[in-house]
Amino acid sequence: MTDDRAPSAPAADGFPQAPGSHDPEALRRRALDALLTARARTATLTDSVEDGELTAQHSPLMSPLVWDLAHIGNQEEQWLLRAVGGRQALRPEIDGLYDAFEHPRSARPSLPLLAPAEARTYASDVRGRALDILEAAPLHEGGRPLERAGFAFGMIAQHEQQHDETMLITHQLRSGPAALTAPAPPDPTDAGSLPGEVLVPAGPFTMGTSAEPWALDNERPAHRREVAAFHLDTSPVTCGAYQRFMADGGYTDPRWWAPEGWDMVREHGLTAPLFWHRDAGQWLRRRFGVTEPVPEDEPVLHVSWYEADAYARWAGRRLPTESEWEKAARHDPATGRSLRYPWGDTDPTPEHANLGQRHLRPARAGAYPAGRAPSGAGQLIGDVWEWTSSDFLPYPGFVAFPYREYSDVFFGPGHKVLRGGSFAVDQVACRGTFRNWDLPIRRQIFSGFRTARDA
């Protein structure tokens, strides 16, 4: 996801009141759990390497890990301590250092950043004070917009998890031996019997949300969309399928490529997804410090929008629109409702989806049968972010909240929408309405895709 920035002035309103009753104490427990889960993951990502690796820039595309660590604390200070708690600023002199809009990632190593020990102490100090504020904050529906339903606390938990995903990308880009390990995801049980595609019938559905308490501004408001009938891949496109595109000259034939994508292929000499290389007649990949054969039945990863679009054209298909993706993921034709997740309204479990850095790789195509949508499509949440054909645009009735720079400044044809989350995403920052966006050239992100065709 594109970088955020520090708040200017929090909006006085604009956060729609979630319908129905909310238990403030249950929300408080939910917020506490989300904040603690995020901080434990941040510790894993930053404690697993030496201080020299925290301060190094492993790629000009990414910040030093220590920048992310202090930025997490600074955002929490600005929103929870200052905006919600009304506390005096702890470190106002560092606000500019950790403003993501003020300094591009490539320039951040040259800034006078907090050293690792100081960054850890700062983030910990902020967190202790934030938990005190959470304990006393009124979270009822009639409260201030930032506090209502615990929105600000949920926003900060999502923000930290988004930067944890960013730091995991940095771990993938760093050289040297593996610093992180995780077990393999579960194998599919019925992949051989799954159809290659599912039919999503024509008709309206409710897109977006006005009810999810911690939904971010670009997910709002709920609105009706009419979608024509279409077919959608049951699972994301696999590495094996993508290799057939490569073997058929996919990277050498301009017919399949958007003009800008073809320029990218020629300029950078692209021949395969990022982190792949050919050795002794076999495709290998580097994954978090380990070199291994490319698994043919695993969703392809680290491809740009241009590569996904070219594959779809080669296959005689197309990328789904964002509306199509969400209808396939959320619409329940039996009730006419749009669900929170493909499987229903309950929060994800390890049986539903591959989330939270639990496995450090996508599961094989066809995994997680408990997570399939009423449409029959699977793995719509977790595993890989899925490129859609859609530009990142506001929904009708969009209101920026709590600051313009989260979504509003990125709307337009320059960014493409990704949906569904990846194995690197925590459940607090992933739901059926969640919208990610990035430049169509991006390859270092945990991105894949599935294809569609008209019915």
Automatic annotation (TrEMBL):
UniProt keyword annotation of Transferase present: yes
EC nos: 1.14.99.50
Enzyme class: oxidoreductase
SUPFAM superfamilies: C-type lectin-like (SSF56436), DinB/YfiT-like putative metalloenzymes (SSF109854)
InterPro entries per record: CTDL_fold, DinB-like, DinB/YfiT-like, EgtB, EgtB_Actinobacteria, Sulfatase_Mod_Factor_Kinase, SUMF_dom, SUMF_sf
Region (Disordered): 1-24
Domain Sulfatase-modifying factor enzyme-like, chain residue ranges per copy: 194-453
Record: residues binding Fe cation: H71, H159, H163
PANTHER family in UniProt: HERCYNINE OXYGENASE (PTHR23150:SF36), SULFATASE MODIFYING FACTOR 1, 2 (PTHR23150)
Protein name per the record: Hercynine oxygenase
Gene name for this UniProt entry: egtB
